[in-house]
Amino acid sequence: MLEDREIAKSSKFQDSLQRAFNASVSGRKSSPPIAALSPSDSLAFRRTVAAQSTQASSELEKRDRLIGRLLLDTGLRSGELLKLRCEDVQDNFEIKPGKFLAVLKVIKRPNDIQDERLWEPSVKTLPGPIAISRKLASELIQYISKERRAAVDRRDARKETPYLFVSHSGRQVGLPISYRNLNRIIAKLRKASAVATKISPHTLRHTHFTELRDLMDANGTDPKEARRLLQERGHWSPNSSMPDHYSQRHLAEKQAYFVEKRDRILDED
Q: Of the candidates 102, 122, 104, 103, which has an alpha carbon nearest to the alpha carbon of residue 112?
């Protein structure tokens, strides 16, 4: 029999080993940062998803193109897109008195116990409207009233899911798509656009904000104003460093440009 002091010491040693083991298991190497698509890859992907809806050969193709456009044109996170409801698409939202826009309303709703998905998506950012083109809003509304309606009607259920994007075939027809479905859709769109670079929904988010920051820089937008616009568009908190990430990338590119220019001048001398 061990004495009380030895038992306590042994228990403490076991706890320290358990903590070390847990830290070792959870201590993964950080994955490389997700980069935005190159201008040429972004253009190829945009041409694929921006094709007119009348050219879509099936319900699935129209849905998938709309998803690709939404991610690239808004910078939505996966969870935000999967949590969009039909009512969140508004083509005549009054942003201020007398000023109307087409918007997506990102809303941080409580957990939905009736959400049929195994892993319920979540909205992590601050709530608020995201401006979209009226053309995109119109096509989303058409999808809701036609292709989505047809998929929901094929499901023998008393209650319709409120979520915007649903499955159009199989056992899950009429039910909201999952994270896994979304990743497969993006992979299919990448293949259709002949982009060699691996693409995820988050890649498209980075591409959106990179291109937005490029446009601001080309228009001579004040850096502070650019940061504020990015922060509002991405629904980041005021203390978030994410808007600065895109500004820092610009500074690095400008430094590289001037260094290369200096080297060319020195070589000529």
A: 122
The residue segments making up the domain with residue 83 are: 39-206
> How many whole angstroms separate alpha carbon 82 and alpha carbon 79?
5
Determine, yes or no, domain membership for 11: no
Domain-located, residue 175: yes
The two three-digit tokens of residue 172, written as one number? 């899950």
pLDDT digits (tens, 9 = 90+) for 104-122: 998 888 888 888 888 888 8
For residue 134, the domain's CATH number is 1.10.443.10
Q: Which pLDDT belongs to residue 166?
A: 95
Structure tokens at 263: 């080297």
220 within some domain: no
Contact 187, 204 (CB under 8 A): no
How buried is residue 158: exposed, middle or buried, by Cβ count under 10 Å (0-12/13-18/19+)?
Answer: exposed
Distance CA 45, CA 168 (A): 23
Question: Taking the mean position of all CA atoms in its chain, how far away is CA 192?
Answer: 20
The DSSP element (H or E) to which 96 belongs, if any, is: strand 89-96
Q: How many domains does the chain have?
A: 1
The tens digit of pLDDT for each residue in 133-158 reads: 999 999 999 999 999 999 999 987 77
Q: How far from chain centre, in Å, is Cα 162?
A: 20
Nearest to 73 by CA among 139, 117, 154, 166: 139
Find, among 197, 199, 203, 167, the residue nearest to 186 by Cα.
199
Give the containing element (helix H, strand E) for 230.
helix 223-234
| Stated pTM of the model | 0.77
- Using CA atoms, how far residue 240 sits from 36, 120, 227, 236, in Å, is 19, 25, 11, 6
* Helix (H) or strand (E) run with residue 9 in it: helix 4-26
Is residue 185 assigned to a domain? Answer: yes
